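FORM 7B - TANDEM STRUCTURE REPORT

SECTION 1: FIRST PROTEIN
SEQUENCE AND TOKENS:
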Amino acid sequence: MTQIAVLGNGRVGGNLTTALTRVGHEVSIGGRAQGSAADSTRKAHIVINATPGDGSLERLSALREELRGKILVDLANATVDGPDRLPRELIYPGSSLAERLQAALPDTHVVKTLNTMLYPVMTAPAALVQKPTAFLSGESTEAKQVVRGLLGDLGWQPEWITDLGGIETARATEAAVLFVPHVIRSDGFVPFAVSIAR
């Protein structure tokens, strides 16, 4: 059992909280109030960022002390949304939210993952007809290994997980969010993942 704090209590955070609790982890939710987020983060071993990406850097930078020495699993995509509330452009072109977080939180092990899919796939990857891919980006091999284990708890098979390398590789996976509005307009809000076919 691992103590996990999920920051963000929307659809993504709620879905993950339910799934991680179901498999035996002790999960607390840090909502919008900074005090609530700080309390949850302080007690956790692993912190999951499921907050809206356009405000994640500011929110998490304020938790620098609470996040010291911990693994921060970043799921967010930082985008400017269009009138239909779907992603229209990246907030950090030529960089990524994950890189900005790692720079702002040098004593925290940031691992980017699960940001290339609709949220139901995060906790039910086997429900897709094709095998999905979960990508990992981060500087710490040990932290990525811990996150691999967490993904396994959520139903991800080892062969479905691809380690892309350092945190700068998150630029590629974060840019994949620009597929999302076109796929949704074409097929509707049906679970899918950006995957590597081999």
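SECTION 2: SECOND PROTEIN
SEQUENCE AND TOKENS:
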Amino acid sequence: MIDAKVAFGVVLLAVHIAVILRAVLLEGREPYARAAWLMLLVGLPGIGTVLYLLFGEPWISKGYRRRATRAYEQLLPYAPRSTLPIGERSAVGNAFRTCEAASQWSVASGNRASVAPDSDAAIAMIVADIDAARCSVHLSFYIWLGDHNGTAVAEAVCRAARRGVACRIVADAIGSRALVRSSLWRAMGAAGAHLCASLRVPLGLGFLAGHRTDLRNHRKIVVIDGRITYCGSQNCADPAFLPKRHFAPWVDILIRYEGLVARQAELIFASVWTAETGEDLRPALAKNEPVSFAGGFPAIAVGTGPLSPRSMMTEIFVAVLAAARKSATITTPYFAPDPPLIGAIVAASRRGVDLRIIFPRRNDSRIVGAISRAYYPILAQAGVRIFEYRDGLLHAKTLVVDGRLGLVGSANMDRRSLDLNFENNVLFDSANLAGDVGKHQRSWFANSTEIDHGGIAARWLPRRLVDNLLTMVAALF
């Protein structure tokens, strides 16, 4: 019996040492993330080992990776080609070129857009576009609830499917698990819509599905007839957001685009659809030629995730911040930046950019909320103006630079969005659209409290200790 216990202990020790070596030797990992995992593994041997095996790497099966890569490569010829010169202003050009490298297609010219006034109006706009659809309705949401707004969209899908419109619906298997199990989901299927619960995990066992349990499809994509697309932070739900009503209202932003960028968004949707369902959407894409509008602005839709080159989302944020000359305004609910991103924010502020960030005062993630505040001293020392939104949870993810260049989409400035989740964003160069997004940002400023830099500097020693520890372990969240 003693020998068996000793042997078991030796096996556990061997596993623990092997995991430590794996964490140290894994190529491509940022040194700060390597240090955070090493600290956890050494400090909490048993728990740390289990956590690393579950969440230490953004692992995804070779089979899924091959299917997704092949689907994306087959769709690339359907991306609109543009001869738009983007090098006239080098900093802006570099931001677009970074997105081109991530997406493998060129900036799309001739786009136009409008910002939804609020979340309910955004859903009403989507429903109207679905009701007017003639060929196809492609929807992808991380969270889709069976509340008023969620039901309104589902009913519009049913109406479209019954009149012969090809409706393809993607809902994240975890974020929308209640909908996937509901009669509303079954009703869409009965009406003729094609349904996909994305990244299913049987009984929570990721190794059976071939990917980490917490790798999620966080995208919010709406494409109607291949010519209209929506991109932003809004899920298919009411602002009251009943599962987390304590933090309501959830304040989001959604932009409606028309033009070649709609085709790019559809390719992002199609790549996941094909990888998960096996259906080849190229014949459907061939029927809907994208439209370019004279006098429209340049934009590019880009999808990122665990299949992208490491740190791709970070590089996009950094490139956009590098373009700032006078001003930059950021809103993000979840802030746990990696070193390059926090460095880009600090550098922009130090070179004289009027840089402002709005965070929600109350965060539905206590850990990430605490990590966000732990970065306040670093931001304040660089001269960044910090605001906390008072009226609900500001969930919008926006970055507007110099009143012209904007990045709006699903990606937060935390490790989940930077490394793990499938995200979608649109980068645009338009004074009019940036101005409309800026109006929303100014309304959020009006309901925010600016954090006093002096109070941050006067933190007590215990608070400084906690903040520094949180920034050290930020890579784990």
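SECTION 3: OBSERVATIONS ON SECOND PROTEIN
Residues 40 and 80 are 47 Å apart (CA to CA).
The chain is about 45% helix and 20% strand.

SECTION 4: SIGNATURE
Preparer initials: ____
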